[in-house]
Amino acid sequence: MFQDMSKDFDIKKIRRSNTISESNCEPHVHPFHEIFYLSSGECTSFIDHNIYKFGKGDLVIVPGGCLHKTVYTGKGIHERIVISFRQEITDWIKEQIGAEYLKNCMVPGVINIPEKRRNYVDSLLDKLMFENDTPDILSTAFIKAGLVELLLFIIRCKEYEDNVIKEIDVDNRKIQEVATYIFEHYTENILLEDVADKFDMNKSFLSKRFKTATGFGFKEYIINLRIQNACRLLLETNKSITDIAFECGFNDSNYFGDSFRKIKGISPRKYRKNETF
Predict the structure, then answer these.
(1) pLDDT per 10-residue tile (average), the chain, 277 residues
(2) What are the chain's domains?
(3) Nearest one of 50, 14, 37, 6 to 172, comparing CA atoms
């Protein structure tokens, strides 16, 4: 599923229970960046090709264009604060400290905020929500300043703090290896039985475990990666739609078109004509 937003910045608080209907989100991708802070509960997120397990006090970075899905685990209520923003709002950081720092800041992953610094992060997020929910003539400036402060804090965590970058979910290490392999070879003819043999796993077990760990069916994940790459080629090159289909791993241009419409809700041709989709 492709998602977009109508403004340059948004922040909201989301509360969910762990019921089946509320505990999972659909796999999706969006052009804007997303940062979310888990204030209660436990989650597993599949971002690009990495599986992360995290809990209270963890901050998740999802750059624009990353395919991802979150599954809420554990008991009780899960509460997170979600910040969405476009790249343009971070131009000031590039001018002050350089584009490389900002690029490293927005690498997908999970940061465990040191406990002694959580009150600071909570206060900063509260200010952002206040300015977003009760805007006046100065709110846009306050929001930009607050977001810059949060991003600078993340950069400092990555540069100077020990053990703040959460490790990939060790309970799903084998599936992690499978997901990475698919991510690196999705343009090829990848079959479930071949991958199962490669990683010395039963085909049925791999299929079920992959779905549980990532939220994607085996074939569904491959198709989503191919469509994600096709979107990039449609916007960045003049290659024909048929050539793009084959380059991304589809052996039938009609199947490519059907798959693209199912995921993006629009044909490849219309997507190319309108970059806002």
Answers:
(1) 70 76 65 90 87 90 88 78 88 81 86 90 96 94 92 87 72 91 95 96 95 90 94 93 96 94 91 69
(2) 9-160 (2.60.120.280), 170-273 (1.10.10.60)
(3) 50
